[in-house]
């Protein structure tokens, strides 16, 4: 496949946009080469500026769970746009999507909409601090909660890919209030709590980690966090920006039957438009302005186009609860196929999956936290990535990312992908 026009467009972009991209993970820094420029997408496929068709396993990094340009979402946006694109005044639509989200997700009474996952997580932490009147938070190495200052301490995703897990520009004052723990290590969390008695407002966690590859929680880990939080007056924040409305209608809280105190959303909840949200029981949410003292706001929050897209997406999922099983079946089929061909070609690897999330690690040991995720062989990953690109398959250009399975992918697409992986892994 040729990527001539993409290369030219990237050269133009680099002149006026830092690194040619508006979000670092889009650059091909970790794998070499230049990013693919997209012209359009439909269902399971991307169509690029050179006329290539690619099977898409990124899906806008998660939102497009029903595939690209899903008709009811597109129609909802078009119809709303004709009626005006932003008012800065309440609309009925906001109540409709809020009511549906509250009905689908366990343990939440009220929800507030923002414009990104980053905003959702930073607002959730502010709310937790205001509510508990404590300053410190615990986050886990390799978990990503957006690019707000408090979270850029051993952050996952792009931050690891670019070797700057602790970003310059975050002040020492901010960094000292973020305590770092090891994912899947309860004892480590208990020790931190003991050492910072009555100072911790919240523990924020990806209840299934997805930004250091896909790492499901060990049995008992989330239950243990819940108990530690309850025992110590700490709020448990589930960052379900990736997992919400994906692993189940009610996210990981429903899937694993664990109650968080505050839940953050993004990605799927916006149907591909810029939306985030955070939600909790009434007592906590009423602490927000204008009812309570914790300030949080947004000119474009609850934007009608974004809410129309999100509502159409959530309605589609709510009306078709069988989708989550269908996606998990496809993921299991793909994982089994990849497992078979990589073994046949004597490749060293580990595959992690849960629901519609999957990651392939070029490492023999099991991948359970940031340290083990970082052990993978990046040279093999580069060959894997570029080999698949040549075969017309697009995975994330970083070994630290999860692939997302969508409802639009067919078993033919999965078979094509498995055959391509067989071919590519013979060249390692
Ligand atoms: C993507 C992501 C975020 C950040 O969301 P943005 O919309 O990119 O700001 C936060 N948390 C998790 C778990 C994510 O996967």
UniProtKB/TrEMBL annotation:
Keyword Plastid: no
Enzyme class: isomerase
Cell membrane listed as a keyword: no
Enzyme Commission numbers on file: 5.4.3.8
Any one GO molecular-function label of the UniProt entry: transaminase activity
Alphabetical UniProt keywords: Cytoplasm, Isomerase, Porphyrin biosynthesis, Pyridoxal phosphate
Sections of the chain in a coiled coil: none
Main location as per UniProt: cytoplasm
Known pathway: Porphyrin-containing compound metabolism; protoporphyrin-IX biosynthesis; 5-aminolevulinate from L-glutamyl-tRNA(Glu): step 2/2
Modified residues (N6-(pyridoxal phosphate)lysine): 267
GO-annotated biological processes: protoporphyrinogen IX biosynthetic process
Cell compartments where the protein resides: Cytoplasm
GO cellular component, one term: cytoplasm
Classification via Pfam families: Aminotran_3
Cofactor: pyridoxal 5'-phosphate
Reaction(s) this enzyme catalyzes, per UniProt: (S)-4-amino-5-oxopentanoate = 5-aminolevulinate
Family (UniProt): Belongs to the class-III pyridoxal-phosphate-dependent aminotransferase family. HemL subfamily.
Summary of subunit composition and partner proteins: Homodimer.
PANTHER family named in the record: GLUTAMATE-1-SEMIALDEHYDE 2,1-AMINOMUTASE, GLUTAMATE-1-SEMIALDEHYDE 2,1-AMINOMUTASE 1, CHLOROPLASTIC-RELATED
Official protein name in the record: Glutamate-1-semialdehyde 2,1-aminomutase
Organism of this sequence: Flavobacterium petrolei
